[in-house]
Amino acid sequence: MSLHTGEMLKRVGTESVEELFACIDKEARVSGLNLPEQINEMQAQKRLRALAGTNKVDYACFLGGGSYKRFIPSAISAVVSRFEFLSAYTPYQAEMSQGSLQAMYEFQTIICNLVNMDAANASVYDGASACAEAILMACRINKNASQKVWISKKINPNYLNVIKTYLWAADIEIVENKADKDLTCKLFQFPNYFGELEDAPVKVGKELIIASLDP
What we know:
Radius of gyration: 29 Å
Number of helices: 6
Largest sheet: 4 strands, parallel
Order of helices and strands: HHHHHEHEEE
Shape: elongated
Low-confidence stretches: none
Helix content: 25-40%
């Protein structure tokens, strides 16, 4: 028994460490753990990867509903845990938010490169509100149109609920006839809610085509 242990036992009024566990039945006490020798972090990762490799997970995923295989770099969790990225609000004080603004610029640049477009917006809440904002923008562009929109029936139902809330307040009608030549815009999702790669709707008039993409 070390000197420090003896001093602590004396302070609490016991003669030995075993007395501290007197209220526990001897049969329930752990007398020793059969643990392997300690290993370093690199060895632990190697062993865990070997164990994980025995799982059968390399199957085609047909779940849909946004459940797709993704690769998320390890640095992402560290970056997004910083307070600059915890808020969904646009950083109004630019001099205090250079990091966030730089990240948004890089994101917009990557999206433009992916979809081959000249401009990309950023800092909307989510994909559902982005779809609603795109429809509102299409209605502002096609001012002389009927303010009627067609939305694919295979879009995520959560997206559709958000869109309906937006359009109800703006007095914009959702119609089922995508052959209507007086439509303002058409919206489809790629891949759609069922995981299908849906073809873009054909233009029959001056309507704009909106694609909800998963980059």
